[in-house]
Every structure is written in structure tokens, then in C-alpha cells.
Amino acid sequence: MPDDIQERAGTPVLVCDPAGPPITTEQDALDLIGAAFLGATAVAVPASRFDPSFFSLGTRFAGEVMQKFVNYRLRLVVVGDISAHLAASSALRALVQESNRGGHVWFVPDLDALDHRLRDQTEQGRHPG
User: Fold this and answer.
1) Domain ranges for the chain
2) Fewer Cβ atoms within 10 A, N terminus or C terminus of the chain?
3) CATH number belonging to domain 4-123
């Protein structure tokens, strides 16, 4: 399946193909942002597409990618099991917890969890974008 903009819980989301190209550079992230500008307000990226350096905070790659999405006012959603990365890094655990409290970057286990978060946010009267 190619990357595709889908309506999820009333929000247009660019859902990225797990078999798509890896995200190894800031330019790769910008390419996703460009694709999202066709009508999405959020981008759901499988965790498996991120280069392992994304989950190693010392590389600063995660911060650079996340900042790009914030700058372009798009929500970044990392979708999938990242438990091995979380077990290896207390700093990453803290980042994930803090991110999930906010509205710009979320880490969710699957698309059903994303749908639930989007519905909850809409019901609380917050704009999902």
C-alpha cells in the first residue's frame, strides 16, 4: 500500500506504508511533510521506517525531525512497538511520555490507538490539527 491520506476519526491523516522508504535524514522527513500538504493535518509513520538513530536521543535526529513537523504545524504520530527502544533509554521514555501529553508528537502502538486519541481530543473540544 502506498502512503495514503485517510480520514481517521474526522482528521485527515497521511498514513505511511510500513514497506515505504526508511527515514534516515531530515530531507526524508521533509518529503513526508510535503506529501502531507496535499490535505493531511497529521502524519502516521510506522516506527519501523525510522532509522534506529531516531530512537537514540544523543544523535539529535528525533529532535530535528519532530521540530520540522512542529514548524510546519503537522502532527507527527510514530506508530508501532518501540518497547525495545524504551527499555534501553530512560531519556526516550521521558520524551515519549512528555510528547504524548501534548498535541504535536504522539507515540501510539497502532492505528486503532491513534483513532481513539483523535476521537478523545475532538470530544474534549480541541482542534485535532
Assistant:
1) 4-123
2) N
3) 3.40.50
DSSP string, 85-118: HHHH-HHHHHHHHHHHHSSSEEEESSHHHHHHHH
Give the residue from 68, 70, 81, 77 showing the smallest Cα distance to 25.
Answer: 68
Residue 46 dihedral angles phi and psi, to the nearest 5°? -60, 135
What is the spatial distance between Cα 121 and Cα 9, in angstroms, rounded to a whole number? 10
pLDDT tens per residue, the chain (129 residues)? 689 999 999 999 999 999 999 999 999 999 999 999 999 999 999 999 999 999 999 999 999 999 999 999 999 999 999 999 999 999 999 999 999 999 999 999 999 999 999 998 877 765 544
- Name the 3-class secondary structure at 57: helix
Query: Any residues with CB less than 8 A from the CB of 49 and at least 6 apart, and which?
Result: 16, 18, 20, 21, 22, 23
Tell me the C-alpha to C-alpha distance, in Å, between residue 6 and each of 27, 72, 91, 104, 126: 23, 19, 32, 18, 20
Amino acid of residue 95? L
Number of neighbouring beta carbons within 10 Å of residue 119 = 15
